[in-house]
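We modelled the chain as a single entity of 215 amino acids. Its sequence is:
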Amino acid sequence: MLNRRRFLSNSVVLAATTSAGSSLFAGLALAQEKTVDVAELMKPQELPDMTMGNADAKVTVVEYMSMTCSHCAHFAETTLPTIKEKYIDTGKVYYVLREFPLDPLAAAAFMLARKAPGGKYFEVVDYLLKTQADWAFVPDPVAGLRNAAKQFGFSPATFDATLSDQKLLDGINAIRERGSKSFGVDATPTFFINGVKTPGALTVEQMSAKVDALL
């Protein structure tokens, strides 16, 4: 189980190094693309996929991301809203978000999103990415997460219960491990656009060009 003291100490150290690590990942944005088997990529995960859009869309975008990755937050703020409006909401793109936590704190944030009252997974993800500075890079990240979770109806008891859910944590870690071992994910964010691996926080123009070429 997540030991709160160990979780806190690990989270502080790892969250502090995430920004530097993410900068390295950003340098890989133009790395050589490769294609993975789409049928294999889309097989059921340990936990249900979190998705938006039409499952029968011509283009499927799978994003592996970490909640403590500043580049993931940048993509979510500057690119995803336009892509959602232009492609996801219009039925042209099926979007799948998969957890790839870079540290225990990111895993905890994903756990909260998975357990959010009312099934508000994407709302929690969006909020936590927008408020990263308030919980991911602070002296007491657990307190920061606790305060954020209150916005979505978590009580102290349900917050603690969520972060003690070993089965949920194992499921998130299994998604991360499969992404790494089966599809070569080693950076966040990493996208698979109809199976083509594309690492890096793509701009609206970059992602639009890739999607348009497949429509």
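As a brief sanity check on the tokenised model: Strands lie at 34-35, 50-53, 59-65, 93-99, 190-193, 196-199. Residues 100 and 177 are 8 Å apart (CA to CA).
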